[in-house]
Amino acid sequence: MRRDPIFYQMFQRSPQLLFDLIGSRPSNAADYRFDSVAVKEPKFEIDGVFLPPESEGGTVYFCEVQMQKDETLYERLFGESLLYFYRNRSRFTDWQAVLIYPLRSVEQSQIHPYRALLNSEQVHRIYLDELGDVRSLPITLAATVLTVTNVAEAARSLIARAEKAALPEQERANLVDIVTSIMVYKFANLSRTEIRAMLGLDLTREPRAIREAKEEGREEGERSLILRLLTRQVGELPEELQSRIHALSLEQLENLGEALLEFEAIADLEAWFSKLE
Questions:
Q1: In angstroms, rounded to a whole number, what is the distance separating the alpha carbons of residues 191 and 184?
Q2: In 78-122, at which residue ranges do the beta strands (DSSP E only) sit?
Q3: Which of 72, 114, 73, 71 is nearest to 62 (CA)?
Q4: In CA terms, which of 1, 31, 167, 169 is 20 to 30 Å from 143?
Q5: Contact, 199 vs 180, CB < 8 A?
Q6: 13 and 90 assigned to the same domain
């Protein structure tokens, strides 16, 4: 299971999750947006960047979700991040980096050359298996730990806690979507409907008109996220494929979001579309 797309979905829906992970929030945390940025000459793209409002400036946060060992991760992360900060110095007052690992053994082996940065207040290393039990963590943090556990009961408990906490409707809906997606990846033989039934979700509680209105808003957000993830996964998409994605229904977008985790080339996306015909 490749979990980083799940984190990108979580950050896209709730950028404030990053600040819950590092235990520190800027005063304008609610106004941050999660995005990817490109730096030219040399050309590279940083996938996980939390940007403060352009009108206010502030700290830019670089985030890397690393589920497999990469022995040159820190060389790339610090090199690209500092170059981006240098090129955009007038926009930001400071920078920080956040590294998210499933466990310590996945971290790069040779860290001595970066000891000053790694031990500073500017770099945060998060090990998901050390955050605590899903059942006792704050709800937003519990969702991140759920990605490295194998307990369906923990997922049901998290949904129940969200209900009791009387979260705003949009936050609750986002959490349900994320938990459902995580469980779909863990139980690949079950459909999304079966997963929701397993989690004890009752999707008929809301009036149909309200539910459909929410789905229309979700559809555009889902489409934008899918396009970003596909570009990251297989490269720039031809206009024809982009048009076909824009024509997909919400249910089809959700299915594509699950399938794209296994894509390695544009041919995989084309094969997925061929199955719809």
A1: 7
A2: 94-101
A3: 73
A4: 31
A5: yes
A6: yes
- Is residue 210 a part of any domain in this protein? no
Same domain, 152 and 273: no
Angular region, 24: left φ>0, alpha ψ -120 to 50, beta rest: beta
Residue 44's DSSP bridge partners are: 39
Cα–Cα distance, 118 to 116 (Å, whole number): 6
Query: Do residues 165 and 139 make contact, with C-beta atoms less than 8 angstroms apart?
Result: yes
pLDDT tens, residue by residue, 84-121: 999 999 999 999 999 999 999 999 999 999 999 999 99
9-13, 20-24, 272-276: segment of lowest average pLDDT: 9-13
The rounded distance, in Å, linking the Cα atoms of 132 and 142 is 8
Question: Considering the domain boundaries, does residue 125 fall inside one?
Answer: yes
The secondary structure of residue 103, as a DSSP letter, is S
DSSP 3-state of 94: strand
pTM strictly above 0.85: no
Contacts of the segment 214-219: beta carbons below 8 A, 24+ positions apart = 214/173, 215/250, 218/173, 218/177, 218/250, 219/249, 219/250, 219/253
- CATH classification of the domain holding 40: 3.40.1350
Strand order in the sheet with 59-65: 33-39, 44-51, 59-65, 94-101, 123-127
Q: Show the tokens assigned to 220.
A: 């555009």
- What are the residues whose beta carbons fall under 8 Å from the beta carbon of 66, sequence distance 6 or more? 4, 73, 99, 100, 101, 106, 107
Domain that holds residue 274: 215-277
